[in-house]
Amino acid sequence: MTYGHLDQLAINTIRVLAVDATFKANSGHPGAPMGMAPVSHVLFNKFMKFNPKNPKWLNRDRFVLSNGHGCMLQYALLHLFGYDVTIKDLEEFRKIDSRTPGHPEANDTPGVEVTTGPLGQGFANAVGLAIAQANTAATFNKPGYNLVDNYTYTFFGDGCAMEGVACEAASTAGHLQLGNLIAIYDDNHISIDGDTKVAFTEDVLKRFEAYGWHTQWVKDGDHDLEGIEAAIAKAREVKDKPSVIKLTTTIGFGSKLQGTGGVHGNPLKEDDCKAVKAKFGFDPEQFFVVPQEVYDSYHKHAAEGAALEAEWNQLFEKYGKEYKAEHADLSRRLSGLLPEGWEKKLPTYKPTDAAIASRKLSEAVLEAIHDVVPELIGGSADLTGSNNTRWSNAVDFQPPVLGIGDWAGRYIRYGVREHSMAAIMNGICAYGTLIPFGGTFLNFVSYAAGAVRLSAISHDRVIYVATHDSIGLGEDGPTHQPIETLAHFRALPNCMVWRPADGNETSAAYYIALTSKHTPSILALTRQNLPQLENSTIENAIKGGYVAVENPNADITLLATGSEVSLVIDTVKELKEKHGVTARVVSLPCFEVFDAQSKEYRLSVLPDGIPSLSVEVMSTLGWERYSHEQFGLNRFGASGAYKDVYKKFEFTPEGIAKRALATIDFYKGTKPRSPINRAFQQLI
Amino acid sequence: MTYGHLDQLAINTIRVLAVDATFKANSGHPGAPMGMAPVSHVLFNKFMKFNPKNPKWLNRDRFVLSNGHGCMLQYALLHLFGYDVTIKDLEEFRKIDSRTPGHPEANDTPGVEVTTGPLGQGFANAVGLAIAQANTAATFNKPGYNLVDNYTYTFFGDGCAMEGVACEAASTAGHLQLGNLIAIYDDNHISIDGDTKVAFTEDVLKRFEAYGWHTQWVKDGDHDLEGIEAAIAKAREVKDKPSVIKLTTTIGFGSKLQGTGGVHGNPLKEDDCKAVKAKFGFDPEQFFVVPQEVYDSYHKHAAEGAALEAEWNQLFEKYGKEYKAEHADLSRRLSGLLPEGWEKKLPTYKPTDAAIASRKLSEAVLEAIHDVVPELIGGSADLTGSNNTRWSNAVDFQPPVLGIGDWAGRYIRYGVREHSMAAIMNGICAYGTLIPFGGTFLNFVSYAAGAVRLSAISHDRVIYVATHDSIGLGEDGPTHQPIETLAHFRALPNCMVWRPADGNETSAAYYIALTSKHTPSILALTRQNLPQLENSTIENAIKGGYVAVENPNADITLLATGSEVSLVIDTVKELKEKHGVTARVVSLPCFEVFDAQSKEYRLSVLPDGIPSLSVEVMSTLGWERYSHEQFGLNRFGASGAYKDVYKKFEFTPEGIAKRALATIDFYKGTKPRSPINRAFQQLI
Ligand SMILES: [Ca+2]
Ligand SMILES: [Ca+2]
């Protein structure tokens, strides 16, 4: 395969578009697009299959720009191939409400698979996309029906290579022998602090070899298009290992400042812009110019992609005749809807049922629904037995050659790698055929905060099974006991934080988590046993908050979540018997869902005129939104048996009653307004 | 060197103590202590210098148990050597308020250097301890005065090896050629999910080689004491690389379940406890038995350590005569006190001074004080030019052989590795001679959440320079704009979150951060310029909150932080001129510090009877604690020029005035109680 003038022209067109867009925005990163234009040209034209007219075609190759700051590269490519990204969109790069934001966002731009920019995330997302591909292929492909055989390609830079989340994901990918994953490392020796020699002198390829990857090095990524093509072709042939290609490039190729940090995160100066254009044969006075022959060439490849999809659609239709159930299942999965009636499998409980830890209640849900919701694919960050994330007859997702699972397996062993677990789940979700869940201790969801944030921004339906949710975990002590964690994720937009109080609330949490197509959920679950409550029903709990104990003319409303709900119910008795005080109880398992109910309903739960006290064994921050007074733990916990820890901090009926009485006393003679009443609506 | 009966007896004593303590606690991890008893015996007796009677002796060797769940190993060693850890303390393992909590905590147990347990942290702390040692040695050692020449040893397991934070730290340590760091990898093939073959099949030594480490493998860590000794001796000789020794051991050595996951996180069954004791020649019916000859032998080594310290004290005294200034400086540093009068160097500003971004104001502080506070050592996670963390004549902390800095350099290039930066800072702080600061975008402090939490638990004086603190960063867009971050860290106990509004507030933030010996600080700083305010003084701001604009008979109090303070001050004018409404303004740069003021003072700032509205361009969660109504951003931001983004979300004088009027209207006819008045005191 030889390359000629048109190839070079296309490559330079990409570079000049990146120069123009960043110059016009007076902001952005021209360096990476200019350096990676050659490999992009080769990869997208010689290898990648996709249909710009249907960016959601299942069997498209996936592309992830992990060094997302270089997004003008991706926007230029999307434009040239005919995705719905116009020259005007490129002109509005980094402008309010444009479809070309400062970093790639999956929901803003057609053709962007995942939201990247926070470094390392995209790389790990790519591992997730590759896992999803392998699992989907193993589940649905049949002899003569290679429905799913796409590759996942990712570009990553030095920053991604340094980030722990990508290191973790690379180790996982190596273990899993993901032959469908090809990563291209932009080895340009530059990061924001300048030459990478100041901080990053490791041998990256050797490290990837250690992980079990196939490695190659293309030494002249600026010019050696044949070498790039050969390396990618070779990588595609390696089926039993993920592949990394180290591509040595010149950042900002063509600029006066090429090869320096000066082109990384700042637009080129005006004279440099002109010089670049002149050098590449473009008119220095014109902006956003695309030669027609470049459009023609790129549109030709796009048309080939459209034809491939048309072929695929025929194949899929034929498949539907031979494999009716599979066809229906895959079609349904792609719609995002769950199987009809699945929710009937959710376990329900009576107050007379035994006390059970909510991590076990979560396990019971997974046990009950894994058959009827076959797109559920889950795992744990090496805490399977503690998180109770594995249903009894689960098969591990593993390369079959290891003899401990297969590609169709639905249980993923993430290892002690919380951050990459979360980022991999975001990638699995983005593939479109699976709903991922992953377990760790609630406290260690914090290790994954960078990726949880992207679950929320990206509208990913992923479920964090976060057990050992409080000081109730006991002996492991303060380093493992969350205090700030629920406040953290309650403050995160588009993220549901659930802390169920019993079995029915746990089923409700799963119901909402699974039926909310565009929102991640964190389920905070106990290590210790919880009794089944009187008024807890799935119907009540799916409102996010409800009255668990009603008492007319109550002196106080006690609010709680999770393990504290039964505790405040006990306190009602204590208050009545010892103090003649009448209390009512509200269970508030999910703020976000409760907030979405009608004001009328919310006021029925938290009415005007009654003082209220919230009880939760962690930071009180944020509870002021629902209660007049708050009892919590604004300090770290303690190591000891869980009942001793609760007692130390006075989370007992006596300790709560003391504060309830203080609250009643404080509000005596007033009729406090419900915190639900606000002066104005929040921006959400 | 040969080993005999007494060595084996000591090793088995450690094992049996771990068996007894976990059995008595009915909780804990016997496996790692039983497997790592041999290497501990060799390391502590043949190599480590320390004085149990003074666990804080500067030149002691540092030991970090990164696999902190194995803490009974460390507690047993501390007891045997004569630290203030008694048999009774071991009997109280994992009990409330004991000095033997479920994971090692630096402030609970004499001889525990850093708080570990959350996996990977200890390994990164050890890198920090080694950095601090190298820097302190280069700063204070003189010919004939090898004041500081200790090693840092760390044990780590498979879990730590998998965690991204440790991977990042290992890459940094390799780059920095830390010859004083020796890490011992407990290669026991077991983690909580069982055999590591399910998730962790990489070649760990090869990976460390790729990072630039010296590597060795001792294949029989259960028996080959000579091999262990030889490997450690060899590692000590390698001065230009950190060393890792892969030690293949049998987890739970001696138990019926040895070599399986069954001994990882659960006590041995009673019959197994007895069998272990019988096997090791102990009385199966007795508990917590230490043979006198083991005490004698360990106490002998402890006495040698005490003698070494006595020698060192003489050397240090002599040093004081020859190097008076250095002696005084080092002594002062060890006291934790700053140089007298240092605070006079803090920049102050007049309202007529130019508007400056608070990230630049932070730079001005560092520029002004770095000479008078020589223990300041800082850096950035590859955002030096954006975080403004480097004073103009700073020297990089680098191995001199690279030609780009030296060991006495005080600027650390952390690379794009936020999590390990934070964990390394915790280690630097723990060394005792330095105050670390580190820069990244506020949004990416979340990547480091696991380590920030340990800064707080461990009472570490570390400073997070967190720039680009809001939607005010503009074009980089939602993936980089914090929404939940301040709520997250405000909910974290013992962590000061500062969001200064101008120059004097920035100086105040540094003043409190540097003088708070036991608390980490996060300084949230703007990218955009901020005007210098009228009533802002260091004296006011160090109270955490103060009245920025007073107006008698005000209709409303407007509260804000950082960039929004000048905005609400503009709103005062808008309200007066267009609506005839009188407003007062409160700047609240640090909740935690404000909370520590007297109630009288807090009520003077937020008085009864006036409705209040808080304004901050991020999650409102938690603001209900200080204000009646809240204007914030409970959704993700947008990519665009910062003024356009502010305008989009109505953070303008008009937008704020609208909400202020709604607030006044809502509270009309009431005299709302100040949120400072509460029914009862919180547990802190
Ligand atoms: Ca780079
Ligand atoms: Ca292990």
Describe the structure in your own words.
Two copies of one chain form a homodimer. In chain A, strands 10-9-11-12-14-13 form a six-stranded parallel β-sheet, with helices on both faces. In chain A, strands 1-2-3-7-6 form a five-stranded parallel β-sheet, sandwiched between helices. Chain A has a five-stranded mixed β-sheet with strand order 16-18-17-19-20, covered by helices on one side. Chain A contains 25 helices and 20 strands. Chain A folds into three domains: 5-306, Rossmann fold, CATH 3.40.50.970; 342-530, 3-Layer(aba) Sandwich (Rossmann fold); 543-666, Rossmann fold, CATH 3.40.50.920. In chain A, strand 9 (376-380), helix 14 (384-387) and strand 10 form a beta-alpha-beta unit. At the A-B interface, helix 6, helix 7, helix 8, helix 14 and helix 17 of A face helix 6, helix 7, helix 8, helix 14 and helix 17 of B. The site of one calcium ion has 6 residues of chain B, from strand 4.
Computed over alpha carbons, the radius of gyration of chain A is 28 Å
Number of helices of chain A: 25
Structurally, how many domains make up the residues of chain A? 3
**Chain pair with largest interface:** A-B, 133 and 133 residues
C-alpha geometry of chain A:
elongated
Structural class of chain A: alpha/beta
Tell me the fraction of residues in β-strands of chain A, as a range: 5-15%
Number of strands of chain A: 20
CATH architecture of the largest domain in chain A: 3-Layer(aba) Sandwich
What is the CATH third-level topology name of the largest domain in chain A? Answer: Rossmann fold
Strand order of the largest sheet of chain A: 10-9-11-12-14-13
Distance between the termini of chain A: 53 Å
Ligand list: calcium ion
Largest sheet of chain A: 6 strands, parallel
CATH class of the largest domain in chain A: Alpha Beta
Instruction: Provide the residue-averaged pLDDT of chain A.
Output: 97
